[in-house]
Amino acid sequence: MKITIVGTGYVGLVTGTCFSETGLEVVCVDIDKDKIENLKKGILPIFEPGLDRLIERNSENNRLLFTTDYQEAIKESDAVFIAVGTPPVEDGSADLQHVLAVATEIGRLIQDYTVVVTKSTVPVGTAEKVRKAVQMELDRRNADILFDVASNPEFLKEGDAIDDFLKPDRIVIGTDSGRAEKIMKRLYNPFLLNGHPLIFMDIPSAEMTKYAANAMLATKISFINDIANLCEKTGADVSLVRKGIGSDSRIGNKFIYAGVGYGGSCFPKDVKALIRTGTEYGYPMRILQAVEDVNLDQKAVMVHKIAGHYKQNLKGRTFSVWGLSFKPNTNDTREAPAAVVIRELLKAGCRIKAYDPVAMEEFKRTLGDRIKYTKDRYEALIDSDGLILVTEWSEFRILNYPVMKKLMKQNVIFDGRNIYDPEEMKENGFVYYGIGRKY
Q1: Residue 35 belongs to some domain of the structure
Q2: Which of 70, 115, 277, 349 has its CA 20 to 30 A from that of 339?
Q3: In terms of pTM, does the model score above 0.90?
Q4: pLDDT value at position 2?
Q5: Is residue 266 among the annotated active site residues?
Q6: pLDDT attached to residue 81
Q7: Burial 90-110 (b: 16+ CB within 10 A, else e)
């Protein structure tokens, strides 16, 4: 079998590479010539642990190809996956122009029966728009070619995407065609050998499942952050509360870590898009609106703690920021809490020195040279009035207290992810601030 992946961003690249790992012939196509040339050389546009090795191996075995030639890519393909971006527009809805442009291109080029699969995160009703776009182009060609449309949402976590694809919790496919279902089942059969569920449903339900899943996870994060803020006022410790509620199997302990809020390319835009869908159908999404509001406020919580410690006197102070990506094991800085914290401190007249293991180059696209980037975490601490931990990379977990004391002007730590022990901080002579904790 041969499949085509349109789009070599995060989802498209991981999807195509993992499919090629099963022995399929996969062609990844993109209009960005530089990106394609780099991929042919093994230079990746994203950081994802293990992805570079899989691309190298499957490219060498000619199972994974990269091209800008749509016609060559789509020719004789059993399925074409649309995996292009759907960024939010001003009103929060998903921008479908790239998805529909690809659908038009598919209608222009297919020569035989093809399953057109929406892999991009798209709102309910998009598959029908894709179907119409493909059919419109076929009608222009006077071409009597059969095709089907399927929805196959992705559930990849950045930093764990390879395992998520190869060992999925579930595979969701929306289709109204037995023929398309048969092809999709064959494509995913290698991932079912260990009992991972393949769930078929109607197309609108599949499209809604993706948004509902991300919205539920975002809700858990905003919920525990709201509880954390109340904990500080009541004298409770959210770390202990988390253990207490997380042991309940109905709640579970995942995604209930208090911190400086969620970011990335998925949760913020998907919550906004689902709120917008509700508005379009005359049904206000009250819980999700609160989820978004809490998250926006949470990103500023650490700034308030910093300002409070220094009696609102921040001008001229130097702060060290550890972690710029929105989460560990990725260079993705979209909607990253670090950007909000740093911008607010810059407005207050502060100087910022920052370090991140992989995301500094990407972060420069956000703030450029308005801050100083250092070669390691301890260089960032030189002459610092305080350390602000924003992203919980593993290398930040164990601290060399004597070295830190020598480098820093003031021994203050603002822990935006609650990864440090407040008692240990005090014992080593540091003033400590966490989120929703006693200190």
Answers
A1: yes
A2: 277
A3: yes
A4: 96
A5: yes
A6: 98
A7: eebbbebebbbebbbbbbbbb
